Amino acid sequence: MNNYLEKVLTDVKNKNSHEIEYIQAVDEVLSTLEPVINKHPEYEKIALLERMVEPERIISFRVPYINDEGQTIVHRGYRVQYSSLIGPYKGGLRFHPSVNQSIMKFLGFEQIFKNALTGLPIGGGKGGSDFDPKGKSDGEIMRFCQSFMTELQRHIGQDVDVPAGDIGVGEREIGYLFGQFKRIRDAYEGGVLTGKGLSYGGSLARKEATGFGLIYFMREMLIANGNQSLKGKTVTISGAGNVAIYACQKAQEYGANVVAMSDSKGCIYDPNGIDLDLIKQIKEVERGRIFEYKNKHPEAQYFECTGEDSPIWNIKTDIALPCATQNEVNLNSAKKLVENGVIAVGEGANMPCTKEATEYFLEHNVLVAPAKAANAGGVATSAIEMSQNSMRYYFTFEEVDKKLNDIMVNIFKSCQDAAEHYNLGNNYVAGANIAAFRKLAKAMKAQGIV
Ligand code: NDP
Q: Which atom of ligand 1 is nearest to the CA of 263?
């Protein structure tokens, strides 16, 4: 790393020493930028990197609500308005007990790069709460969402900051949040939240977008590396949430054999091919656990997740798609996957591979589709939802899906071009970071010292 990059990274580590995930995300990006920074010594004078690693604003707030037993519970809410360089802050809300400032900042930081890659006018932000929606009644979820929005509403708007869903925040939660926003602001401002239900301003294909987009990116990456297709490939997918389910659907449509999916408690292995309708029934309708899959398919195997190493990565596969959460693929898992002959890894979740795992894959010629690029289809389609809301118009499913496909093809091309330009071969991890950074740096230079 050159001196300037080293200095910025050291500062970030010193100033945020307790924010492990945030440091990891910054380290991952800075460690790929050397060729660009070497070409632009003028960036140091205008503190371009220092500005990029400091969020514009962090909002933290109290979220009290009353549970079904009549007890008042207090949670902490966040919104990190990371960067408005290229558009209104845009990024999801996560409700999960692990949520803290470090996780919000890492997600916000990654979001600005991801959003830049989409080519659409959206800045970066992220928010959420340490509230756990699991096991809560609809009434509790509604009261929590209303309380959360009562505070958040003063900070957002369709031209200011546009939240969406993430882990633990799906269509149900977005509905309650939107209802409360409208009630307080006394105006229908459809573009203030994305991931809305279809009956009140949502976009067709938004639900499918991140998973479908991941597979479109994977398709392009395979073609660019020897004309392979997904047909006949064995695929394992961690998670059984929004991203995982629709990645599975598109992979199956392309003729892949998806043999395993998981949730936070364990994974199911069905060599005959995952029965996706059943997964949807268990996870989307009944909000149950993945081990219930065995009730209908007793021939499938269930492996409980007991430690840090998820059992899903021990299963032999051609393509691994981590679609659950950050740091779910560590070095041990990476070694196991390589030993079992994996050819490509597609990051559906944000930062699912540790830095060591990613490096191990690249060293062993495993293709890596990095999250910032490969899962950008969700936010890109959110931006398409915003456009439809502004136009007071709806596109058909096919129209949105076609736009999504074109965007993913372009994102892959940007990563490929940047990697080639700097002689980095098929290192799309570096390619994605560089392509996004160049766009952000240009916008930052153009807007002066702010
Ligand atoms: P969901 O809440 O719909 O699903 C998350 C899935 O991951 C669930 O199956 C959940 O299991 C599992 N999971 C969550 N936390 C953990 C954990 N700590 N350990 C193991 N498994 C876990 O979330 P999404 O599908 O929306 O998001 C998944 C990932 O994709 C996240 O990293 C998110 O940031 C990223 N992403 C999402 C986008 C979107 O459009 N939704 C867009 C871009 C990125 P369980 O049911 O047991 O909790």
A: 11
